[in-house]
User: Fold PKD domain protein from mine drainage metagenome.
Amino acid sequence: TTVYPEITASLSPVDAGIPVSFTPRVVGGSNDYVNYTWNFGDGNTAWGNRTVNQTYPSPGTYPVTLTVTDSDGNVGTGSLNLTVDPPLTAVPTLSGTEGTAPQLFQGQVSLSGGTTAPAPGLPGTLSNVTVGWTFPGGVRGSGQVFSHLFPFPGSVPGVLFVNDTGGSRLTFPLSENVTGGTPAYSWPVLRADPSADGLARGPGPLAPHVQAQIDLAPGAILGLVTAPDGPVLVAYPSGSLWALDPTTLEVRWQVNLAAQGVRFVGGPAVADGSVFLPTNGGKLLAFNLTTGNEDWSASVGAPGMTFLSPLPF
Assistant:
C-alpha cells in the first residue's frame, strides 16, 4: 500500500534568517515507518521522524520534501513550497525625545521586507506587521505613526518593537528626557471620536493627543456629558446609556432599553444626582447617577409627542 507523508511548516511564509520548523505526519503503508529523509530545497538534508528546524538565509521559494519508507519497503514523498521573504527591516524616525515640559514625543517607522504588505484601503500603512511602543507607568501605543505628550519633567526609558507574521521580532531602545517647564493640564479631556465611534481621553485641552480610547459601537453617539464628580455619560439613539469612569474609561454601569422599543431623542443631562433622557413618545426617564437604576419616569405630552431639542439644563 502507498505511504502518504504530509509536512506542516510553523511559519509560511517565513522571513530570511528566521528558523522555521517542519512537522511530519504519515499515513498509509504498514504503519511501521523505518526511514524519514528530509530535503529542504536549499542543498541541506536531514533524517528523523520528529520535528526538524531549518533557517533560510536568502529569500526565494524552496521545495521542501519528506520521503518515508515503511517496513514493507513502500516509499512515499510529501512536499510543500516554502516562501522565504527578505529580512524585515525597520527604520524609526523620532522627534521630541528631549525638551522642556510639556514635551511632545513623536515618531514613525519605515518598514520593508518581511511579510509586510500594503493594508487594503489604508495608503501608506502595511499589514502583517505590528508596531508598538511602551514607556513605564502604562504609557503605550501602537501604529507606524505615533505620538505622546509627556506633561511633567523626568527621564524615562522605553522600547519600540516591530513584529511581523514571518517570525521577525525587532526591538529598539527609546529614551525621553524632559526638563522643567510649564506642565500641560493634568486633568483628562473626554470627547467623542466619530471615526472610531468611541470615546477618546486626552491629557488636557492644550494637548489633544489620545491616551486611551474605548469602542462604544454600534451606532452613532447621540450625546456625551461629564457629570460633576461623576462618570462620563454616553447616550445612543437606540436607547443605550453608558456610564464610564472618567480616568480609566472602564464601564461603571450600562442601561439598554432597545428591546423595549425605547429610543433616546436627546443627549443626557445631569441634575441633583440623576441623569435625564428624553425618549420617543414624549416620555422623560431619570436614572440614578451612581447605580444606573431608574429613579422615575414621566409622560410629558400626548401619545406620539416627541422632544424637539435637548433638555435646557
